[in-house]
Amino acid sequence: MASITIRNLDDGLKQRLRLRAATHGRSMEDEARDILRSTLSAESRRPGNLAEAIRQRVAALGGVELEIAPREPIRDAPVFPE
Question: What is the rounded CA–CA span in Å between residue 31 and residue 37?
Answer without folding.
Answer: 10
